[in-house]
Amino acid sequence: MGSPPMEKRRGGLTLDPNPFLAGALERKLSLDSGSAASSAFVFPPSRYEERSFVCEMDFFSGERSGLETPSVPSLDLKIKKDDLSINTGLQLANTGSDHSTVEEEDDKEGKCEVAVMEAELRRATEENQRLRGMLSQVTSNYNKLHMQIISIMQQRSHQIIPQIQQGEEEDGMPRRFTDVGRGAEADEPSHSSTDGSSRDRSPSPMNNAEKVTIAGDGSGVFGEERPEKPGKLLNFVSKPADQAQEATMRKARVSVRARSEAPMISDGCQWRKYGQKMAKGNPCPRAYYRCTMAAGCPVRKQVQRCAEDRSILITTYEGNHNHPLPPAAIAMASTTSAAASMLLTGSMPSSDALMNPSFLARTILPCSATMATISASAPFPTVTLDLTQSPNSLQLLRPPVPQVFGQTMYSNQSKFSGLQMSAPDLEKAGPPAARSLADKMSAVTAAITADPNFTAALAAAIKSIIGGGPLSGGNDSGGNDMSPPAGWGFPATS
DNA sequence: CGGATTTGACCAGCGC
DNA sequence: GCGCTGGTCAAATCCG
């Protein structure tokens, strides 16, 4: 009477006896009748600190109601982060039944539970170790790449000046990005010196955009208003170089593919539509927006649905904000700005970055080897972030994307063709490190899938590595003060 | 009424 | 030179 059959208590759990735990439990699970017993097991400080979870096992489930005297309703197993202990609270009702029977059954039950706990802990330990290793690797890779970026940008700042000043055209070699810069420079006189029939575009934000100042050391002027005289902030970059950088920055683009039924993804900024065109090869019109958070902000974006999958919204950003951004907008601005910076870096002749798209992709989004691609083709160098590809990857970037599902990449990217590579290509072509990183990220996402409870913490950790905050969707992020990590080096970014 | 959107026109770049 | 295309402008219109 009183005690249910053991098989019900075990609940079909597999056992994996552990002498340490089992012995401890046998020792501690000596129950006093009519009282609640609580046992604590202190584990050696180790990897359990990463996790804190509660495992509740109800051995009676639906049958509990049929019992007159539920002797062991539940076992509450807790692994705490702080004291690294496991507490088992075994609640016993005063049933008046034979205590020794209860003890025996509870001993057996305890062994079962210990085994289950031990198996779970072992799994959690392995998972934790794996994830920590991945995180450290990602962090390490990020730091290495970041140092490379800084070095390259500094080198470029020194090298591009004499090239531009000498008019570096004698070699005839195509320099995609510097050509873009020169092209934009060439546009300048055409705007001002065209015949009277041409419109006076002087008040156009375009011209303002071309005055964006880039700090000479590559560090951003984040949050600062653009000075009236471009170049005031420059230490050693001459005006021509500055203009070339400006033009390139303005032309560099970041394309974000995301599934959304909304006409436009929310990125925290205010936009005003200034045009709409039917683009060739796509029945869906392309809308043109410009940032209206500050007068003269050069940032523009194009929004267009994918021709082959209209649930995919393709948003292409161009330029850097010249005004402070709300927290909700910082993440997206940081991403686009970082992409522009990387493409600017790629403008350096013989740049490894230009020749190695995976380098750029991993630099911009260190964990996104399967998400980011680079197109250095004319007319504009473009980074494409595909947020439709991997639901797991998207957990890291979920805020701006209401819904995401697995999707084949780049179904309609003819406009941004060129060096663009699909994720598999990227992994094939990249050095072993690239493949390794991709593998690690796959493992990370798999681990996240395996343990949804761990998603938030890991996502936050990786997000902090990626770019200092969620790619927030403005209205749905709830506000996040995270700033881009120091040293991102966003040129002229607000 | 002021701001946002729509929409036709204009312009520049590019390829043939 | 011409046509095509992408990008932008600005007047007209819409909307809160």
TrEMBL record:
UniProt keyword list: Coiled coil, DNA-binding, Nucleus, Transcription, Transcription regulation
Domain of life: Eukaryota
Domain WRKY: 260-326
A molecular-function term among this protein's GO annotations: DNA-binding transcription factor activity
Coiled coil: 114-141
Subcellular compartments: Nucleus
InterPro entries: WRKY_dom, WRKY_dom_sf, WRKY_plant
Region spans: Disordered: 164-233, 475-494
Major location (coarse): nucleus
Extent of Basic and acidic residues compositional bias: 172-190
Pfam families with a match to the protein in the record: WRKY
Record's GO cellular component terms: nucleus
Name of protein: Putative WRKY transcription factor 42
UniProt organism field: Apostasia shenzhenica
